[in-house]
Batch of 3 targets.
Target 1
Amino acid sequence: MLVRHLSLTDFRNYKTAEVTLERGPNLFVGSNGQGKTNLVEALGYLSTLGSHRVSNDQALIRGAEDSAIVRARLEHDGRELLVELQLNRSGANRAQVNRAAIKPRELPRYISTVLFAPEDLALIRGEPSTRRRFIDALLGAKSPRLLGVFADYDRVLRQRNALLKSARASGLKDATLPTLELWNERLVELGAEIMFERIGIVDALGPFVREAYQAVAGSDQEPTLDVVLSILSDHPEADSDVGGPETTEVPADRLSREGLADAFRAALEKVRRAERDRGITLCGPHRDDILFRLNDLPAKGYASHGESWSFALALKLACAELLRADSVTGDPIVILDDVFAELDQRRRGRLADAVKDYEQVLITAAVFDDVPEELTAHTVRISAGTIVDASDD
């Protein structure tokens, strides 16, 4: 999978931008705030339907414009595709492939990227929601149909929460909420599928994480990852980070969709009174976590800054390797956004070795000399939202 050309209109600080990209490494260089990250953010959005920097699409539209357009000409096995996305300030976003309209959520079928940025340190040190988004983005990239499952679960969750809040406000009892059971079953059906898929992808990712950590850190430390299910917690109603080390082992009888569904129903029954009192759904995949360990200790709270960086980078490299192993459209596009400035010389070299054989790698850097020479073959220089120079060094 290659991006041959990227075109932007009214995206972030670009009125227009036209960038030709090459096979192998492509380096975007410019001072901070000039628009380097905006270019790779646009490509990342096409493959994940989200930004790694903001949660609101409105921030991606330049100034007071009504819309922004991202176009990418892709190539795989000699076949070209034109992928287009229009982000609208009001109304639904629109997408096309080869000028034929598609639903925006279908875009990840055509382009796959793995992006690593300084913000990814939050995977190790941040909140459970960050780790859930990470694992769900990987699931969406590997199996785009799951994007619809996530959207359906969020819709059902909102509806169920609205019903619980309404019941709390009016003092209604469970017996007067016949529709709650209907929402429960739909929540369980979708939630069990999400939990099942998360467990499967985490198990598949583990060996790649261990290999990637060794590649970037060169140490004998052992990174591991496990899904923490709120439905198995002794206190799923707690407001702190759900679960804990003692709840990471998922019993064998819960590993199937049916087993997870049964456990979810039992957990909902357990928290029924607390949900009614608080007006919110207290267990399910929306409250789960992924526990990262280094040498059997939780990375959050125990890993040093350098170890946390290495773990986060290993997670993203592992995603790229997993997608590469399963892909029928070639390698994912690897994006390294302002990463090399955060690494010492040794880790820079190790990272360059880890990514150099991917079909296409996109790199942003404020300082040209921060990037290993083998990744600077095609350099694009950027200033104030303008492509000022593109050359093969």
Target 2
Amino acid sequence: MSAKQLWRWQGISNEGNLLEGVLWADTRPSLMLALEQRRITPLRINRMRVKASHWSRERSAETIHQLATLLKAGLTLSAGLALLAEQHPSSQWQALLRTLAYDMEQGISLSTSLSQWQHVFPPLYQAMIRTGELTGKLEDCCFELARQQKNQQQLADKVKKALRYPIIIITMAVMVVFAMLQFVLPEFAAIYRTFNTPLPLLTQWIIAIAHFSGQWGGLAVAFNLVAVAAYHLIKQKPYWLIMRQTFLLSLPVIGPMVRGQKLTQIFTVLALTQNAGIPFLQGLESVTETLANPFWSQRLAQVHHDISAGKPVWLALKNCGEFSPLCIQLVRTGEASGSLDTMLRNLAHHHSEKTLSQAENLAALLEPALLIITGLIIGTLVVAMYLPIFHLGDAMSGVG
């Protein structure tokens, strides 16, 4: 995250006007220097608290889309950023947009300026905007970037919606099972001990599980807490990211969605760079910059190496092992016909639509499966608790 801090200031301009605003700066002296460069004498400076919730993917994508609209309307880059700053409701976003506009006025490119705000604009933004700067089609790249981010957000929302109901069901099932094991089952076990009838094997197993959970439950909770803490320590390590991606791709339902999301991103950037006339190898480098996972970076590095060695693009993708036969066939057709950019754009659209469809079907697959699993677990507990009742009649008649 950026080391810059947010400051609210009040000052007087050279014309004697009282001004105020918010700015990003590393330190208080650097802020005062920035105000002096703008010919403002500071009177009061207060540090503001930065709200991490304001740095959301939705706001970043919306800002880029609005900027593309202003650029298409004929405004300059600095003027568009300044106008967005005036209209934005968040003070920290206002300061950020004014900082970007000031950088534009100083001759700094937008992609270079965004590289200092990677927690707000991920590498994908920088690569797409750099492509637009190189080709002179910045507004088109911004529109495509905003569309791609909107699709990613739709995919994330569909997955969350699909998982929301199963998570509620699982939580309720765990609570019910815990209550039955810790409070209900011991009472039944105490009643059954007053009779000399042996308990059914299923009931004995459930009682043993309840005893084990009551004796070692605290240790299990502590182990889970340690596992969560260890995960937070290693979750950004390259070896862990590679292992996690490999595991996700091997899953039957989640794997195709993860692969489709990454292929959509890869083909979207490649289609833009090809359409702009950028060499394929340079486009691959731009794609690699947008990928935060070393698993895919290594695969694209292999593709880059094979193409540099003289192999055709379709063969390099085939040797990579992560691209479907459809991808290879369309890329091969595009190379042969000279319409590679069109084929890449079609592949990006195909994988985007397919991934969204898979996300919609996720709920239809999870809900009945979880209902069956939770029904079996709770049903087994109920049967285990009430099964000995059928043997109590024989025991009571024997006593009589």
Target 3
Amino acid sequence: MKVLIVGGGGREHAIAFSVAKSEQVDEIYAAPGNAGIAEYAKCVPIEVMDFDGIRQFALDQQIDLVIVGMDDPLVGGLVDILEDAGIRTFGPRRDAAILEGSKAFAKKLMKKYGIPTADYETFTEAEEALAYLEHARFPIVLKADGLALGKGVLICETLEEAKAGVSAIMVERRFGEAGKELVIEEFMTGREVSVLSFVDGNTVRIMTSAQDHKRALDGDQGPNTGGMGTFSPSPFYTEEVDAFCRKHIYQATVDAMRAEGRPFCGIIFFGLMLTEEGPKVLEYNARFGDPEAQVVLPRMKTDIIQVMEACIDGRLEEIRLEFEDNAAVCVVLASGGYPLHYEKGYEIRGLEAFSGKEGYRCFHAGTKVKDGKIVTNGGRVLGVVALGKDLKEARKNAYEAASWVDFEKKYMRSDIGKAIEEAE
């Protein structure tokens, strides 16, 4: 098979790593890819929103399978364009990708079908949102309706903070068109857990659990980011939690989308909050989480191409997903100042340390090759991943490996997975 991966971040590097292990695959391409993905794939200079360019390249190269990794092209309808051209594509069509593309749609879907989530209201006018806040309970959560690179969620402790948040999202349009509509929802407390799943429109197959760290600074302080690190599995995702979620959240969501005439084929990311009242949905994503994919995919034993093909063909019930009985921790190495202001173009040193080391991976998120050297090219630069027999060992290994790599203004959180020790 010839496979084309659309995207150029750490998630797509993890996907390329998994695809390269499949005996069915002969050639891998990536559009646009990055310096790390180039280890497995031929990177082509086509941007993810150049739908015509991607379609034409897939036709010219006789690509057998396109895997769309990123949210923007999914929500924009790239899968529709490719499938309509007769190109087999893994990912949800536009009418299903709205599950991530509109938080208001997702909340209304959960309310209609009784899927547990936080209480909420939606607003299209800033004045109405501000009036609602005058009588709200705090803390409270503001969410830009559309895609905002994982940063369009504000947790507000006071009325003053919330008013400033409404202004930033709806008036100043800090997140662009994503802020045309605003979701205001109750603040839930508990443990967060991320669960990825494969879906074929009817059947859902759950992957192993993970936990992300969204805030930029230690102790879950600072602004929200795209994710500063993850670990898998989550010790808080028990068999009891799993049984509840399979019945009331996972299958219920797939059935709801089908009932709405929007059958979902691809990846559904379930962001969960384990509250005192039971598990509730924080958010949906319509693709692999980033950096959750970096700790989940290295633990997956099942051939990813077999699973994706089964999803496209509607025979996912035939597939049994298997994962290694181990643990993984990912520590994100970011550019100093991320997610606000940061600089690019610094040489990355020490990447060769990962060569040939079993149980260690360095997934590239924001890198490129310049003058024969690999340099920083984004806010999140690398995802350092290490395996271990348990989470404590994996965490120790990951932080050791993070010290192998260096670049100017390198920054990382020091407490990824610290909750593991606190739970034991």
